[in-house]
Amino acid sequence: MEFSILADTFSKMETTRKRLELTQHLVELFEKTPQQVISKIVYLLQGKLRPDFEGIELGVAEKLAIRAISKSSGIPIKKIETEYRKGGDLGHAASVILEQKTQTTFLMEDITVERVYETLFKIAKIGGTRSQDMKMKYISSLLNDATPIEASFILKILLGTLRLGIAENTVMDGLAITFTGNKENRKILEHAYNVSSDLGKVAEVIASKGLEGIEAFQIELFNPIRPMLADRIRSEEEAVEKMGEKFAAEYKLDGERVQLHIEGQKVVLFSRSLENITSYYPDIIEKIPKSIQADKVILEAEIVAINENSGEFLPFQELMHRRRKYRIEKAISQYPITVNFFDVLYYNETSCLELGYEQRRKLLEKIVKENDFVKHVPMIIVTNKNEIEEFLENSINSGCEGLMLKMLDKPYQAGSRGSHWLKLKREYRNELGDSLDLVVIGAFFGKGRRTGRYGTLLLATYEDDQDTFTSICKVGTGFTDDDLDQLYQILSDKVTIKKNPRIDSNMEADVWFEPELVIEVVASEITLSPIHKAARDEIRKNTGLALRFPKFTGKIRIEKAAEDASTNEEVITLYKGQKKIAHDKNRM
Ligand code: AMP
Predict the structure, then answer these.
(1) What backbone phi and psi angles, to 5 degrees, belong to 239?
(2) Residue-range domains of the chain with CATH
(3) How far apart are CA 507 and CA 587, in angstroms?
(4) 414: helix, strand or coil
(5) How far apart are CA 317 and CA 130, in angstroms?
(6) CA distance between the termini of the chain
(7) Most ligand 1 atoms within 8 A of CB, residue of 258, 406, 423 to mutate
(8) What global pTM score does this model have?
(9) pLDDT digits (tens, 9 = 90+) for 314-371
(10) Does the active-site annotation cover 375?
């Protein structure tokens, strides 16, 4: 398939954010796509080469890309940098530069989607000492044969700046219309996506086997399932109101969520954002198989750091010590953990997702044998407010965050946040009633004690409709010296030359970051703001929302991807909730 067809679709998609128009472009593209390249097309549309959980990263730096453009065009690096600084992005700058060059070139070979994909794949896989040179050779060979428009998209994919704003659901709409003639069938595709986390695979199956193939789609071991999420509630009363007469209450442990795929001695661990985190926990890999009574199984658990002497749960932050590549053995003995199981999703070739919570819990208790390292998450069945209150108290006293409340007869809804699971946290230190998980997008250098580090961070919410990060506050309190050091270290790797186009902020930060790191903050209030961009125009025209007196809680949420951060929709709900409380208080 000619790459120009894809580049042409990309260009059209860049001019719109309207879902219907995007879907129409996708349908036209899919209609022209041969079956054997459809998965590649779907990955490339999302700026990827493979599903996220495979961890294949292109990792090409801007500098290297600039050198490659210079090599294939003969235009000096300085000139390319000047064009780049004028605006747009490097992909766009390259197309302007190459426009000048290709007017005099005649012997270009047509490039195909297959060739671009395979070359990008090679670039992603190269390691070792000469990798930079090799990468540059591959990039410039592609650019040599590419038209300016094609080159601009190849570079955007390489640099991770292709942002077409197409949500997974829109891709699925396009697939449903193209291959079944009916958009309603998206629901069936969604199920397949939720159990495989692999949109390319879903596309391949619908294109080659049709709806029947999708309906027969099975969970596969070592392919992560998209996790079920919980809605938040504020009080025991609200719990009883929403959950009915009888339901389960579990401790909400303050650790890292993990999905364990196990077959015999082989164990693979996926984080909440479906990253493969097996290498951080060699102790789990070694010890878990002995406690599992099943041939093949997918389980969910919370990994929690513990105090070895008292057995008490320690805060999530302690797990950060496991995030290292070297001397992991030392971290294992210094920072011991327990693995606390709360669900079973697949058991000996059969999906458990359709079973009710109670049945799944019984099966879990049968499969997982407890010992010092392996536990079942504490659970009781509750019927009233007092029982919830008492269990919540116990949970907080043993170092947990609160409770997870779960309906007894409901299935596991992969990939969705619903009302069948509710979370109840006790956080009265925080007048908002809940903390927010925000993305670090920029920083301002510190003064005095904080010289040489970032003194204040600029934070953003996630706007999922637009796939952007909208600024909501600056935060400079709540940081210990250790926090400042640690954040400086982590963030130094994320500094960008220019503000990432997904960042929506009017501020002039000293440095901008790739929007990747999520931290937790509390605040006293949400206020209207003429400066910040979060929920802009939603409550009042030309006005956004901001946090008042924000404070870092000490939690760096490494387990969360930027797209898992608090959304503007959630902030609007909190804003409205706070107004309602104020209103009710005034009436009393
Ligand atoms: P939050 O990150 O605040 O949205 O809360 C959801 C997270 O709570 C999950 O992703 C899990 O990491 C964690 N969690 C702790 N205990 C449980 C439990 N018993 N059931 C489900 N999730 C739990």
Answers:
(1) -60, -50
(2) 48-159 (1.10.3260.10), 229-428 (3.30.470.30), 436-587 (2.40.50.140)
(3) 39
(4) coil
(5) 38
(6) 69
(7) 423
(8) 0.78
(9) 888 788 888 776 777 888 888 899 999 999 999 999 999 999 999 999 999 999 999 9
(10) no
